[in-house]
Write a structure and sequence with these properties.
The complex is a heterodimer of chains A (108) and B (117). In chain A, 0% of the residues lie in helices and 49% in strands. With 117 residues, chain B is mostly beta strands. Helices cover 0% and strands 51% of the residues of chain B. Chain B contains no helices and eleven strands. In chain B, strand 4 and strand 5 form a beta hairpin. Chain B is globular and about 40 Å long. The N and C termini of chain B lie far apart (40 Å). The chains are: A mainly beta (108), B mainly beta (117). At the A-B interface, strand 5 and strand 10 of A face strand 5 and strand 10 of B.
Chain lengths: 108, 117
C-alpha cells in the first residue's frame, strides 16, 4: 500500500498569511495526487487534481506543486473561509486510493 | 446540477447488517466508476470500496469479505451492503465520483453509520 504523510498535522495562521502544507508518498506516484478541503460537518471538496490542476470554480489563491514523492498545497493569502482541514490523496494505484491523515488549519 | 445523495445509515448492533444507497443525478452515471469512502468521528478519510463501469469491484483488506459494492445503472444508484459490522465500522460514509483520471471530484453529503449495542 502507498502511505501518504502530511505535515504539519495542524497549524495556526492569521488572515492574510501564506500557508504551505506538505504531503509525502511512501513511493513515487508521478503526479497522481489530489487535494481536498473539508469543513466541520461537511463533505470534502475537491481543490486540485494531477498535483497542480485547479478544479473548476476553485479560487486561484490555491495552488499545488510536486511530482514523484513530495507535494505541496499553498494558500497564497489565507481568508476566514479557508480555515478547515486539508487532505491529500494519491490515485497512482487507482482504484486503490489512499489519503493523508489531514492538516487542520486554525486561526491564530 | 451534478449531485450524489446518500441514504440508509443508522444504528445497528455489532454483527448486524446495513445497506447504504447513493442516488446520482446530473451526469451519465453508467459512464463513471464509483467509490465509497468513510470517516470516523474526528478521524481522517478511509477508502472503502470501488466499482468500475463494467461492474468490477475492489476493496481494502479491512472490509473485504464483509462489504459488497454494487450499482444499478437504470436507477442511477450505487449501493454498499455491509455485513458482520463492527464498532470500528462506525463512521460517516460518503459516495464519491472520480473524474476521468481517477481523482475524486464529486462527493455526497454522507450518511452516518453507528455500530453499537
Amino acid at each position: 500500500d502507498i502511505q501518504m504523510t502530511q505535515s504539519p498535522s495542524s497549524l495556526s495562521a492569521s488572515v492574510g498569511d501564506r500557508v504551505t502544507i506538505t504531503c509525502r508518498a511512501s513511493q513515487g506516484i508521478s503526479n497522481y495526487l489530489a487535494w481536498f478541503q473539508q469543513k466541520p460537518g461537511k463533505a470534502p471538496k475537491s481543490l486540485i487534481y494531477a498535483a497542480s490542476s485547479l478544479q473548476s470554480g476553485v479560487p486561484s489563491k490555491f495552488s499545488g506543486s510536486g511530482s514523484g514523492t513530495d507535494f505541496t498545497l499553498t494558500i497564497s493569502s489565507l481568508q476566514p473561509e479557508d480555515f478547515a482541514t486539508y487532505y491529500c490523496q494519491q490515485y497512482n494505484s487507482y482504484p486503490f486510493v489512499t489519503f493523508g491523515q489531514g492538516t487542520k488549519v486554525e486561526i491564530k | 446540477e451534478v449531485q450524489l445523495v446518500e441514504s440508509g445509515g443508522g444504528l445497528v448492533q455489532p454483527g448486524g447488517s446495513l445497506r447504504l444507497s447513493c442516488a446520482a443525478s446530473g451526469f451519465t452515471f453508467s459512464s463513471y466508476d464509483m467509490h465509497w469512502v468513510r470517516q470516523a468521528t474526528g478521524k481522517g478519510l478511509e477508502w472503502v470500496s470501488a466499482i468500475g463501469t463494467a461492474g468490477d469491484t475492489y476493496y481494502p483488506g479491512s472490509v473485504k469479505g464483509r462489504f459488497t459494492i454494487s450499482r444499478e445503472n437504470a436507477k442511477n444508484s450505487l449501493y454498499l451492503q455491509m455485513n458482520s459490522l463492527r464498532a470500528g465500522d462506525t463512521a460517516v460514509y460518503y459516495c464519491a465520483r472520480p473524474n476521468t483520471i481517477g481523482a475524486f471530484d464529486i462527493w455526497g453529503q454522507g450518511t452516518m453509520v453507528t455500530v453499537s449495542s
